[in-house]
Olfactory receptor 7A17-like (Panthera pardus), 310 residues
Amino acid sequence: MELGNDTQISEFLLLGFSEEPELQPLIFGLFLSMYLITVFGNLLIILAVSSDSHLHTPMYFFLANLSFVDICFTSTTVPKMLLNIQTQSKVITYAGCISQMSFFILCAELDDLILSAMAYDRFVAICHPLHYTIIMSPQLCGLLVLVSWIISVLNSLLQTLMVLPLSFCTGMEIPHFFCELNQVLRLACSETFLNDTVMYFATVLLGGAPLVGILYSYSKIVSSIRGISSAQGKYKAFSTCASHLSVVSLFCCTGLGVYLSSVATQSSHSSTTASVMYTVVTPMLNPFIYSLRNRDIKRALKRIAGIPAM
């Protein structure tokens, strides 16, 4: 009997991190805490940027968009994992798995493209400060975000639609805490060469191209900073980029590593661990990285909380 979409698979099993029952409360508490911190922290960033007119600049416009995407990114995977732990079930429906995979691809690509837009913003601010307000106009900022959404939606639709015709006739166990495209393709018993080709091509093109743009921007930024005579000026210029560079390094390196390493190995443990870094840890750290040393954000947050700004 041929099993495919004609006989319609009803569910997959998400194996998660551990089969040990005694570890489940610890995993639940840890991820629930990280999820709440992520949502609350990024919502504060969005609220601060939207409520303070001093933060209505390109840099904070991109930061607010990044915070929104980070909330969606984490909400795509973590709540379902928490629900499965709480109900002691590993089941995710076929439709739920496809939907989760689609939104995951969308948010991951959006994160990457918005980070590259933020790098371009810092490049213009430091290398062309006199023309900054002209180049980084509200129209260009809006266009960059819109193009990021269009590219991400098209990429997500393409890769998701290519999964739908596949037949699944092996064990339905996914050794991950969410439906990752690469893990789902491994369960297919029909030919996935085209899917694999498109997946890796998209990873290299849509993941690598923004990374190259970011590296180019920072090479120019470093050259400009080296040309600044005063130490205070160098520190001020570098401090505006340090937060962004930290997030880029964490997100892009782990994200690309997950997919490119799967070419050489079938081990899922390292992939799962790296996925936690860029799907949960990075979105949680973003509000702290961007706000702890940012006086403008801290001033806006104090105003929201009713604390007099010093």
